[in-house]
Design goal:
By secondary structure, the chain is mainly alpha-helical. It contains six helices and no strands. It starts with 8 loop residues before the first helix and ends in a 6-residue tail after the last helix.
Length: about 140
Amino acid sequence: MTVRGAPGLTAYFSAGALFGLVLVKAEAVSWFRIQEMFRFQAFHMYGIMLSAVVVAGLSLALLRRLGVRALDGSAIGLAPKAMGGGYRYWIGGTIFGVGWALTGACPGPLFALLGSGVAVIGVTILGALAGTWVYGALRPRLPH
């Protein structure tokens, strides 16, 4: 599947499909695993998240050390965060966590769940899209 004008799209689609497969096989999309995590009954999900943070940190350090650039030539890195009082992070994190706890799925594996046959997750996908749309509409009025 190659899209004209976007030669890297096939690679991104393949990487996303592989990522979804890994999430399903690692049981990171399992509602029971997520429930165990929120009840502090198992380390499984915390281990997955911890390994993701370590891999991301090492990858960013390696990209910076090698001087790798994005396809458009810009430097790859993280923009500095202005913490301020930290309220927006607490509020956003709370909304994210409550949504995760209620639906049993964070945004990462939503499409992996849909692809693995959990059709009801379509409601959560619609909710995530609606939330993104509301944020986009309110963004100019929000403090950043």
